[in-house]
Structure prediction request, 831 residues.
Amino acid sequence: MREERTEMSKDDDRSPPLDLRGADIAESSSKTRNCVTGSGHVTGMNPMEFQAPYPDQVLENVLENVLQFLTSRRDRNAASLVCKSWCRVEALTRSELFIGNCYSVSPKRATARFSRVRAVAIKGRPRFADFNLMPPEWGAHFKPWVAALGSAYPWLEKVYLKRMSVTDEDLKHLAEYFPYFKELVLVCCDGFGTRGLAVIAKKCRQLRVLDLIESEVADSDMDWIGEFPESGITCLESLIFDCVESPINFEALERLVVRSPSLKKLRLNRFVSIGQLYRLMVRAPQLTHLGTGSFSLAEGVAHGDQEPDYESAFAACKSLVCLSGFREIATDYLSAIYAVCANLTSLNLSYANINAEQLKTVIFHCHKLQTFWVLDTICDEGLQAAAATCKDLRELRVFPIDAREDSEGPVSEVGLQAISEGCRKLQSILYFCQHMTNAAVIAMSNNCPDLEVFRLCIMGRHRPDHLTGQPMDEGFGAIVKNCKKLTRLAVSGLLTDQAFSYIGRYGKLVRTLSVAFAGNSDRGLKYVLEGCPRLQKLEIRDSPFGDEALRSGLHHYYNMRFLWMSSCSLSPQGCREIARALPRLVVEVIKDEAEVNRGECEEHIDDAFDILYMYRSLEGPRDDAPHFVTILH
Amino acid sequence: MEKSIAFEKDLNLVATELRLGLPGTKESEKQTPSSIKSNKRVLPDMSEECGSKDNSNVSHVKKCDQEVAPPAKAQVVGWPPVRSYRKNCLKAKKMEVETTGMYVKVSMDGAPYLRKIDLKVYKGYPELLKALEDMFKFSVGKYSEREGYNGSEFVPTYEDKDGDWMLVGDVPWDMFISSCKRMRIMKGSEARGLGCAV
Prediction:
C-alpha cells in the first residue's frame, strides 16, 4: 500500500500570494536578499531591514535552538519569511528538504541555502504522465540532484523520490556518497533496474528502509537480494518490493529475514508463492506490515495434504496491522487471514479478483479497518458488507477490474450510498464506476463531513446521472459545499460550467483538482481560477477551456505548483502571452509522440501542441528538455 | 450541441476526423479483437449524454461515441485513469480466467494429420522442443546460432506474423510466442535448404 507520508506530501498553502511581477530579483545582488522557500517561492525583502545593525548573535543562537523544534514544512516556510535573521536560522535548522517540483529550484540553489539537511524528498513528473499522456523521456532526472546532494550533505540519511527518473548509476552514486544512508523510498519512479538495487543492498550497510512502490524496475537479471551482507544482523526495518516484476532469490531473502530482527514491513512481489510466504512469516512474526506476494501455489505445485498451516502462521503475527499483496490469489487460502483481520487497520485487496461472498468472509472480521483498497469485483454487495462492519473507515479505494469505458459496472451509486451511510468518518475516497447518480454523491456529502479527498471516476465519458439524465453538477456541487475540509477533488461524468461555478464558490480549501472531459466554455475554468485561492495543482484534459480562461489565472499561477492542460482549446499564442506576462513561470508545450514521429519540426511554434504544462521556477527554462518539449518565452 | 449521427458507425468518421490536440488514439496493445463489441449499444439517455457543449473548441473528443461506436471501438489514451501497471496485472489475470491459450497448429512432414499445442504452457524452447519430440516421436538435433539444428533430418520451423518461415530458436522466447502463427517440422531435403548439416 502506498503510504503517503503526510509531512512530505502536503504543500505549503499558507504563504501569502505574492506579486512577483514587481520584484526585481537580481541574482547576485547582496542588497536584495532572496529567500527561497522549500516550495520555490521568491520574496523580496523589506528595505527597512537594511538599516538594522548586524543581527544579534545571541538572538540567533536562541532562535536556532527554538527553530530546530519546528518540524512542519509549512511552519518553517512561514518562519523563514519573518525577517532575514529568521530566514538564515531557519535554513540552518531545516533537516528535511522537500522539493515539490524538481524543476522549480536547482540543486545548487537548494543546497546553498540549506546546509544541514539529512532527508530529501523530490517530486518530478506531473501525475497525468502516469496515464501515457506524455511521451516518456520528458525529464525529472535524479542525476543532477544526486551529484549536488553528494557534495553538500555527506551525512544524508534519507531520500524520497516520486515520479523521478533514476538510473542504476544514480543509485550507485547514492551508495557511494552517503556512508550513513538509511532510507530509500522510490514511488512511481523508473529508469533503474535490479542492478542498481544490488549496489544499494551491497553498499548501504546502515540501510533501514528500502521501499519500491509502484515503480518500474528493469530486470537486469541480477540477484539483488543476494547482495545484502550475508552475515551479521541487519538494521533493516522495511523492505517493500511488490512492484518488482522479476523473480528474486528466495533462499537469500529467507536468510535476510532471519538476520533482520527489526524488520517490521515486508511486501513481497508476485514471484513469491504462498509456501514461501509461510516460511518467511514463521521467521518474522514481528511484522506489522505484510505484502503477501502471489498468495497462490508455486507453478507446478499441487494442492496437497502436506501443506503448511497458514492459519497459524498468520495467527502468530500478533502485530500485523497492514495487509496487502494477493497478487495472484488462490481464493481457497483466503480463510488463512481471518485470525489477523480483527487487528487490521489497513487491507489492500486491489489485486485480488474476489467476489462479494468471498469478501464478506474476510471483511466481517475487520472492525478496526481504516484503509481499504479493493477491486470492483466485490460489487455493490461487497461494499455494503464493508459499510456494515468498518465503522472506522477513513480511506476507501475501489479499482476497476476492467478499466474500459464500456465494460460492465459491478459497482454503482448503490455501493457509494451504502459506504456513505456506514462509514461516517470517511476522509478519502477514490471510486471507479460506470454509473452514478447525483443523489448518492449528495448523500455522501451529507453523511461524510470529514471528507478531504473526493475522487470519483465515472468511466464513461460525459455520462450523466443515469437515473435522472441530469449532469453531475449537483452532486459535485454538494461535495464542495458540504465537505468543508475538502482539499482534493477529481470530477467526472457529464459536467457543465455550473459544476465549476460551485467549485469556485465553495471549494476554498481545494489544493488539487483533476478535470477530464468536462465543462462547456472558458467560464468553467475561470470560476475555478478566480474562486479557489488555495489551488496548487490543476490538471485538466479534453475540456473546452481556451486562452481567455487561461488568462484569468495570471494572478494566481505563481502560487501554484503546476498547471497541466492537455487537449483543451488553447493556442500557442495564448500560452506565449502567459509566458511573457510571468517571467518566473516556465511554460512548456509538449507535442504528441505520434506527431513527433512524423517528423514535424518543433521549432515551428505555430503548430498545434497537445499539452501545456507550466510551473513556477527560480531557474528559468530547464536545459534538459527533450526535443518534443518547447519552452515558450 | 453535438448529436450522435447514425451513419457514423458505418463510415468510421472517427479515423478521418481532423482535429488539433490529442487525437482519440487507439490503445493499441490493450484491445484484442475478441473483446470488442460488435453491436451498437444504445443508451436510453442518449440525447442527454451529448450535453450542451460549446462546439467552438477544436480539440474534439469523441463525445457520444460510446453509443454509436463503430465495431472497432477505440479507447481514449489514458482513460480511465488507471496506471498501466495495474491494468496489466489485472488483465493478465482476467485472461487466465478466460482460459485463452495460445494455440498453434503443428504439422510434420510425412505425418498424416496436424496437432495443436498451447505455446503458453511452455516456459522456453527446451520445453517446447521436448514436447514436440514426444508428440511426433522424433529427435531435433543440437541447435546453434550459426548452423541451426545439427544431427537430425528434422528441423522445427515456424511461420511468423509477416508470413515468413523461420527457424525455431533464433529469437527470444517471448518474441517467438507472440509472433508464431503456426509450426512445421521440416524433414529431409527441404530441411537442408535452411543450412542444416545432415
Notes: The CA atoms of residues 102 and 389 of chain A lie 43 Å apart. The two ends of chain A are 42 Å apart (CA to CA). Chain A touches chain B through 55 residues (CB under 8 Å). Chain A has a mean pLDDT of 90.
